[in-house]
Amino acid sequence: MSRDPRYDCLFEPVRIGPVTAKNRFYQVPHCNGMGYRDASGLAAMRAIKAQGGWAVVCTEQTEIHPTSDISPFIELRAWSDQDLPMLARVADGVHAHGALAGLQLCHNGMNSPNLTSREIPLGPVDLPVATFSNDPVQARAMDKRDIADLRHWHRQAALRARRADYDIVYVYAGKLFGGPMFFLSRRYNTRSDEYGGSLENRARLLRELLEDTKEAVGDRCAVACRISVDELMGPEGLHRAEAEDLIGLLGEIPDLWDLTLSGWENDSQTSRFSPEAYQEPFVHTIKQFTSKPVVGVGRFTSPDTMVRMVRQGILDLVGAARPSIADPFLPKKLEEGRLDEIRECIGCNICVSGDFTASPSRCTQNPSMGEEWRRGWHPEYIRPKQSDDSVLVVGSGPAGLEAAMMLSRRGHAVSLAEAGETLGGRVTRERTLPGLAAWGRVVDYRQQQILTDSRIDLFRSSPLTADTLLEFGAARVVLATGSRWRADGVGRRVLAPVPQPAGYRVLTPDDLMDGVLPATSSVIVYDDDHYYMAGVLAEMLALKGYQVSYVTPAAEASSWMHATMEQHRVQARLLELGVSIIPHRILRTITPDGIEATCAFTGQVHQIAGGSLVSVTARLPNTSLMQEMQARQAEWADAGIKGVSLIGDALAPGTIAAAVFAGRRYAEELDAPPRADGLPFRREVTGLAVDYQIPGL
Predict the structure, then answer these.
(1) CB 147 within 8 A of CB 219
(2) Among the four 200, 214, 257, 573, which has the fewest Cβ within 10 Å?
């Protein structure tokens, strides 16, 4: 295949100060949950982006000093020369594949609770820290000595970046993470000295850091400025018009402008609430104010959108964080004309949840994310088979599709049996719900790969039994038969079935996705799942004209979605649709005209009226076929069956990302020898300090 000429402009080189990007694909800084803890894992992840054709690969924010400690988030650090080997390892991996390495230096300012370092946070004024978890910590107002110290720390970190062989060094003033952003924002900066008041004064610290960095490393390294062009707070915060004035003031100092929105929840909006290129209205005029290259983001998934951004002069470089996670080889596939092989980002923010849970990021589309070093997984390649075993995969949900696709890539003969006519399992059903259409890309990509793969025999409308499995002749049987939602109220807070009237039908998400709707005008949606499903169903019912009460033991709707930075949008959407949200209530009894629920704190019983109940609690794996096969295990050898496995939701219901991961894991581990240490993956164990001692002992 060859590149479509329409996309030629994306492969033009771009000069950035003293360095040149080989094309316009720019992996902007993004968090990953590994940071200083998982050096090799982080380096391998970034290196694979470079291998995939990204011209620039940046780190996440890199703390420059202990007063910038953003724990519990795990980011990189450049506190001292002790951090140099790790920083250099990342840069070396990026350079090995011909890309430029960018280091995003960051002093987090008032976003630093300093929970690990126990240093006092620093900010423009005396205020509580601006953290996601509302830590009971307050920042102190920086005096002139503090500002001088910050400039010194930043300069030293820039010099370390140069010594670690980075090509691009950032000054970070974005998303209410970078300390200079707090000085720029009128919400936080009420100073009356030369660092407060007018825009020129509020930008003084940013100007000084840029000039310091240029002076320190600008002869060899490009200096980038990442800045938020709007806080989406109206006149109260930094807004687009003021950001344009700011870039007019400073536009020629840095070598590149990296544009974002503030805060992170605005910059990384999900597909459920925002379309592709949603940041365009905020950045489309910025290039009028600077001659330097501009990079921006917007969850770009369409090459045509990328080309338009460049040709219309909106951006010089196409920035990506989440799309580069979903498909690290996106540029190379475009360059080689393999558009149908691109795994498009679905905008679910499961990657973001890794940072919020202090765990390595994962991706729904790309199960190798975070596993590149510790499991040796690659997004595009998989080791050849080590046996001639044929494999029958039963079920075409996300786990089954991934297993079949990757087993075939290893060289196995694969049969994929689907009980119905349509592939995709839960994803095909869920993609029809409000806001979840983009999630269907999980199926679209894998279905396309499977339909064009001659090694995979596909059997639709083929419900199987133990008899047919034993007759089929496959050496390995993989049961990816999914799960079903419970209708008895059992979930996190209720561990035994809830009493209900005889003949009463509790509806489940499966019922609603099958087209069964409540027979009454008023509906209770009970959420003891706390992810997206209850909120989406409540939205769907409200849009259909139902009077909806959303009842949950949690304090708010879809409470786990704080980890995907969507909870506030879910809550707002439901309230705007007239949904009544009733928190802190635990289902006790179902009655003909509603439910009895107890207060989560006092146990007091409350009556909640509603003609119908939709229960979104826990799920049960579909294991009946596995049980049939286990009962007939004595017949396996005669049938040529070496093993039968449950994977995905059929083993333990979880996220779509977990199901895709399960499919990849089965394909990777089939016929693989066990590790010598008995563990499922490699670990990086922290080395012991040479001067270890306990005072007084």
Answers:
(1) no
(2) 200
Read off the DSSP letter of residue 476: E
Residue position matching structure tokens 């290259």: 293
Rg of the chain over Cα atoms, rounded to whole angstroms, equals 27
**DSSP symbols for 315-366:** -SEEEESHHHHH-TTHHHHHHTT-GGG--------HHHHHHHTTS----SS-
- Would you tell me how many other CB atoms lie within 10 Å of the CB of residue 512? 22
Q: Are 668 and 382 in contact (CB under 8 A)?
A: yes
Q: Which residue has the tokens 């496959």?
A: 474
Q: Quick count: other Cβ atoms within 10 Å of Cβ 682?
A: 14
Q: Are 139 and 129 in contact (CB under 8 A)?
A: yes
Burial level of 678, CB count in 10 A (0-12/13-18/19+)? Answer: exposed
How many C-beta atoms lie closer than 10 Å to residue 145's C-beta? 8
The yes-or-no verdict on residue 496 having pLDDT over 80 is: yes
| Residue 101 contacts residue 167 (beta carbons within 8 Å) | yes
pLDDT in tens, 116-126: 999 999 999 99
- Which amino acid is residue 120, in one-letter code? I
Q: CA 375, 381, 383 angle in degrees (round to 5)?
A: 65
* Residue 451 in tokens: 């339909």
pTM for the full predicted model? 0.95
Do the Cβ atoms of 38 and 360 come closer than 8 Å? yes
Q: Please report the DSSP string for 383-428 in residue order.
A: PPPSS---EEEE--SHHHHHHHHHHHHHT--EEEE-SSSSS-HHHH
Digit-coded pLDDT (tens) for 636-650? 999 999 999 999 999
Overall residue count recorded for the chain in this entry: 697
Asked whether the beta carbons of 214 and 245 are under 8 A apart, the reply is no
Here the tokens at position 367 are 């199960």
Residues in a beta bridge with 524: 549, 613
In the chain, what is the straight-line distance between the N-terminal and C-terminal CA atoms, in Å?
69
